[in-house]
Each structure stands twice: as structure tokens, then as C-alpha cells.
Amino acid sequence: MLGGARGFSGRWESLEPRPRARMLRQVLHAGLRTSFHALGRFVASHPVFFASAPVLLSILLGASFSRYRVEEDVESLLAPKHSLAKIEGNLVESLFPVNRSKHALYSDLQTPGRYGRVIITARKGSVLDPVHLDTILTLHSQIYQMQVTVPTSAFNYSFSYLCLHDEKNACIIDDIIRAMEEIQSARSTNGSVPVLHYPITQLADGRQAYIGHQLGGVQGWGPGGSVHGPRAGARGEGVRSARALQLTYYLQARGDLMDRVASQWEKAFCAELENFAALHPKLGLYPSTSSSLKMDFQFSSVLARRPLLASLGLCGVLAVLCCSMRDCVRSKPWLGLLALLSVTLSGLTAAGILNLTGATYNSTYLGIPFVMLGHGLFGSFEMLSSWRRTREDQHVKERVAGVFEDVMLRFSGSTLIHLMTLGLAASPLTNMEAVRLFCRTAALAVTISYIYMLSFYGSCLVFTGYLETGYRHGCFCRRVPKPDRLDSKPAWYRCLMYTRYQEETQNHQPPGVGHGSVPITNLTHTHTTHHPAALGHSCPAANSTHPQPHSSGGDPHPQDSHLLLGCVRHCFGDWITNTYVKPFVVLLYLVYISFGLMGFLQVTQGSDPSALVAMDTATVLYTRFYIYESAPYWNDSVQQDLLEYSKGFQRISWLEAYLNYLSDRNQSTSQPRENFTRTLRQAFLREPQFAHFADDIIFAERGQGEEPEFGGTTENKREEMSVLLDTLRRLSLTSRVRFLIFNPSFVYLDRYAAAVSSPLRHSLLAVLFLLGLSSLAIVEPLVSVWLGLTLLSVQFGVLGFMTLWGVELDCMSVLCLISALGHSADCSGPLLCGFASGRGDSRTRWVRVALERHGVPSLQTLLCYSVALVPVGSVRSNLTHTLFRCLTLTAGCSALHTLAFLPTLLTFLPPSKTRGPRQEGEGQRQAVECVEMNDSNTRVVDQITTV
Length: 947
Known about the structure:
The strands form six sheets. The chain has a four-stranded antiparallel beta sheet with strand order 6-9-1-10. Strands 11-14-15 form a three-stranded antiparallel beta sheet, with no helix packed on it. By secondary structure, the chain is α+β, with helices and mostly antiparallel strands. The chain crosses the membrane at residues 303-322, 334-354, 366-387, 407-429, 441-463, 584-603, 760-779, 786-806, 887-909. It is a multi-pass membrane protein.
């Protein structure tokens, strides 16, 4: 990313810093380039060490996977770390300790330790039908008698040993089970079947039992099918049917042994329910345990193992193709695989460090390989592109040093952006533990990947350079036969071994030296080199005094360039800079901004933990199970109850609006069901001001000739829970009665919006601060401005389009947005630096040159990155779906800006390309005397240089 440009001229000279500041900047540029040049020579002089040391270190640290640990506390990861809801939860737990209670707590005041829970539904009929009732009691008996063992104990543990006890030292069992046992006993003895009331019923021992949370979809025998309270004593007013039943089994978990036994019992509980559901297809079973969220959250990593390997394989195949060309000697297919190997080794090293430091793993770490992959591939393709622009008659050490001098400053700048964004998000300022741990680990991985790119991949470039110098095949490493021997080979062999062998021997051998001659040493002429002041500038020809934008200067054989470079050079560059195409690109950008703004205005927070777990798991099935609860809204008492419940809350209620509608027309609000429903459907919902309420009402069609039932729905349940929390908290501060508000969901809701968005804001501010600082010290000011605007535009587009794609703003999407800053800087930074570094000719010409030099590596990175994402999209997990969508949008938006928007906008926006007067001292040449040692067989030109 980091780079500079020559002094501005013409109308942009006003932006040029003072001469003294410019001189200091030139000294800094020259010092950094010289340092990377020396580093490149040092790596090229010791390639064996730099190739073997990272491999050995990765193997040693990889052995630490015996200490691999998975994060157990999911709540600490996904809930805001500092919130009032956690303090309230601790207070509730101290006041109402479930594990020490001698009485049943019918509502989940807090997370009740270890438990097993199941929702049972009837595929047809009611769960209280005799056949279903007997089946449910059979299931309860099997669960009660189920036994488990642990490796450290020889005892068998059943539910009676693990259960919570009441004051009579008996296991606490849901009262609905006792009521069902009484009904079954009465039926078996042909006795009077007891009446089951809702929500409070009376058991045989005279105790009043609340079963409101244990039955769902209840229909009563009262007038109109309404459900009456416990004070209605008529026998005909009991429960007629119920669509769902919930059973809960609370366990003790005191001590380490009991906790391990309870954990084993929960696993056996889920297995037992799975087997029972297979034998009884007429019932639907939806289990959940205290470990379900943790297991289902980590299960995404298990599901993603094979797709990640497939991603690595597909990316490897495409990387090989991107590094290949027709010329078998200059083709570098192994460098594509070695780039992936470098990323893999750095990931293994980072994982080993985490294991040794006692860190734990969680499923959000699935995004880290893609952060490393995008950044590592960008560096490798940039190095390969720079290698192809070096002189082939130079020694390998000089070519590698030139590559380091040309690429590593930009690569270091993009790495610094990654570390700045991730580092600030990993600071204590972040209130979300999952975000903090992800960014800390990703920053470590990116740092190691950068070091391995300098050492391991740099040494691999040295080895492949020696293969190229020795005229060896780029894939098979076999020496390519000379043209006179190749002519006698078959056509397929000549095609496989195609290279410009004869041209090179004629062009680079000194006069009088033929094939097969003994290597000799020649004293050659004194030549000069030009050292440009621009840090980000890469001269097309190493010895050119006046660098021209023509790419042919850097590649004397354009006919043998690989496919992507040829397409960009001959087709895409001319097309994207065409005068008639520019208006359409600008229009496309306006459409991009419009849709991004549309999505940005609809961003919603995703505080539901079930959105981050694997699909088809207990957590998702249990959470998404919807019990359709029809209510007799035409009943006056029900209307009063609903209005009383919602008193004091800001709301837009269809029921309240409908009742006011009836009152304004002097109609009674308490009507028969047929009249109430008919007026609602045919009059109220057809009024334009009330038509929007149609989405809030579900009508369930009944039999022919019968009126439909209907029930209310809530579209944004999490937002309503957040509003409920804020409303109740305000009431707790103004009420004369001191009360506490708590629900397990409040832990994930309280201050969630601020906790999940603050790391993104901090990272964005860190990048802008870094770009502003670099504009004063290193980077050309307008490059920083352009790059900052590009990052904002990419971030805005990804955030808007992910909302339109159905992705909420949760911790996983925020992690992707943070990594998108570094990814877009990788793709766009070199293009901007390459464009700004040029002087002379037109903007259009330099846009084409920048696309050839830096647009092609960015395109290669985006192609490999996108292909690697494809297998991840097939994983059945909400977390990986969020990851796939956000990273796909990141790649797409970055590609649009790098390959379309920036090349078009730069053709008519600053900086200027007008050549100004040459500054004093600029462009001076240094006389360099070289003694060249030419080897006619290997094309090695070893230079003994004196200045």
C-alpha cells in the first residue's frame, strides 16, 4: 500500500509539501527501499535456512495440539461483557438458587444449571389424546430409568440420583406429568377422568399446579372454544386439546464429578429422544439441554472441516493456473502451491502459539483462514508480478532484492492496516469477547503470515529463480532441451517444453560464444542506473533513465504473457477507460451507493445466539418451534386482559386499533366470533390506513363453512424484547416499589448494539488515522485520500448489501466487516500507488499501466479467494452462512472498486499526470562500474559492482 510519487506539477503544485519536508520524505523512502533491498539480498543468500526454519518451527508448534481446548462458556463469548443484565442475573441467582432450592421453579428466572428439556408435538390431533398420552408417559419412564457412566467411576447414574429434590426428598417432576398419570390411571380403572384446567389445574392431592408453561396451543370446552381461568368450576370448561407439551428435567451439578455425570446424562438424553422419535413418527420431539447452545455453536467447526479442505484444494488449483503461462521455463505453477503452503504453515504456527499460551477455540475462528488467505495471496501474486518485470540477465539475488524493494513496502503497509484494525478491535475497549478473541488471534496470524511471506516464500522465489536461470521446466524441474534437439521430439513434447530458448541465447550471449562453449568471463561496459525518488514507483526497465508507461518496457515478450495479463493489457484496460464506457461505470457506482444506502437504513442487530449455531440442531429446532396460539379476541374479558398487559408500553396494536374502529362506528367490541372475524377481514383490513395490519394477523382456515381462527404474530421479536427491557428498566427507576428485571435473553440484549458496533467504529477510525498520519510522513497525500474513500465505500456497500441479503449485525458479521477493511486495502492500495507514481503521458495511459502491474495480482487474489469461499456456502450452519455472505460481498465490492470504479474515476480526477519542471538533483544518475560474469549455459550474470 505504502508508496509515494514524484512531485506534483501544474495546478496541483499547491499540494506539494515544503522542499525540506519533501527532502526528508525522499530520504525516508530511499532508506526503506534500501532496507528491503538488503533484506531481499540476505534472504536470497541464505535460501535453505529461510525455507527450512519456518517448516521446522511449524512442525514443532503443531505438536502442541495435544493442548487443544474448546471454549465452554458461550455466554461469555456472545453476550456483552459489561452490562447491567449480568449484574442482575448474578443477583437473581443469589436470591433464587435453583440447585439448592427445595421447590420447583416453574419459570426460568436464570440459567438453571444442568437440565434436559423437550417439546413434544402431535403430528395429528392432541397430545392429550389417549394414544399420545400413553406414549409420552412411556417416554418419561424411559428417561427416568436411563443410566449413564463416566470413565472415572464404576457406578451407573440415573435421573433419580441426579435430580433436584423437593421438601419430601423426591425428584422434582413437572406437574403435567402427575396430571397425565392421574388421567391414565382413571382411564385404566374405568373411573371418572379428572378435568384438566388451564393454566392452573388441581391435582388429586388437592394441590393447585401451574401448567401454563407446560402446555401450548390449548383449546377449551367453554363457549366459543375459549380458555377460562382456574376459578371456573364447571366440568365442561376444562382443556379440550393441546398441540404441544413441554417437559423439563433439572439436574444437580455440585462438584466436578456430578457436573461430568450431568453432562453425560444430557448427551444420553438427546440420544434417547432421537431413538424414540424414530420409533414414534406420530410425535415430534424437539430436545434442548444446558449444553445445546455450546455444542451446536462449536458444531459449526466440525461441519466445516471437509469444506475448508475443499476450499484449500480449489484455491490451490486456481492459484497454480494463475501462476502458469505458456512458456514452461518462465511459468511458476509451484509458487501458487507454495503460497498456500506458506499461509498454512503460518496458521499452524499461530495455532501452536495459542495452544501453548492456554487459549481456547471457538467457531468464530473459521473466518481467520480467509483473512490470512486473502492477505497472503495478495503478497505472493504481487511478488510474482514484480519478478516478471525484472531483467532476466540479472543474477537471481539481484532479481529477488529488486522484488523486495518494489513490493515489500506496499505489502508492509497493507499488513499494518490489518494489524491496526484488528489490534484496536482486540483491545479492552471491545465489549464483546468473541470479537476481541477473534481479532487478537487474527492479528497474530497475519503477523506470522507476513514473516513467513518474507522468509519462506521469498526463499521459494529464489529456488524457482535458479530453475528459470538453468532453463529447467517450471513444473517438472527438468532441463529443457535446446531447439536443435527439441525439433526431433513429438508435437506434444514440443508443446510441453515450449520456451524462448533460442531467442535468449542469441540475445544474451556475448559475441563469439556458441552453444556448448566453456563458460568464460567478460569485462563489459560501464552502465548507469536511475534511482527514482518515488517509493511506490517501479521502473519498467531496470536501467531506464526515463521510465515510460508502456508495459512492453518491463516485458519484452508480451506474446508469452499469461492469459490474465494479456486480457487486461489488450482488452479490459482499453475497454474500462473508453470514453463511452465511463458514464455507465459512474451510473453503476450511483446504483451501488443507492442500494447500499437502502440496506444501511434497514440494518438490524442480531442478538439471538441461535443465529450463530449449526442448522438442524437442537438449539435451532427448539428455538424456532412455533406454537400457534389462537385466542378468542372477540371475547370482552380477553380484550381487557390484552389491553391491561400492554398498558404503559409504546405500541402499535392491531387489536387496539380495531376496537377503536368498532367503537367509532357504535358497534360492540364483544361480538360473536363470526361477526368479529367478518368485520375484521372485510371492513377493517380493507381500509387503507389499516391495511398494513394484515401482516400481523395469521388466519387459520377451518373446515368448509366454518370461520377461520386467527392469531397475532410478532415479526421482530428480538427488537421487541429489547424495547421491553428498556421500558421495564425505566419503570423500575420511577416506581415506588423496588423491583428487578431479568430474563436469560436480557444478557444477550443489554447494550448489544453498542457492544457489537463499537469495534467496527474503532477499526474504521484507526484506519483513517493511519492514512492521515502516513499522508504526512510516507504516502502521497492524495493516495491516502483515495484509499480512505475507497475503504469507506467498500465498507458502506458490504454493510448495506449484507442487510439486503438477510444478514443481521451480529458478532460474526462485524468480524467480517473489520477484516474487509484490510482486504479492500490489499486490493486497491497498490493500484492507487501505481497510478500516483507515474508522470508524463495521460491519466488513461497510467490507469492501464496500473491495471497491468497491480490490477492483475488483485484480480488473481480475488479469483482464488472467491473460489475458496464456494465450499463454505454449502455448510449447514447459520454462522458459516453469515461468513460466506459477508466475505462474498467483501470480495465483490473490492473487485468492483479495484477493477471498475477506481480505474474510471482516476481518468478524470486528481492527481494530475502533467510533467512539471525537473527538480534540482532529481533524476541524477549514479555511475556504476560492473564486471559481468556470463555463463552461456545458465544465463547467470554475476555483477561485481563499484560506485
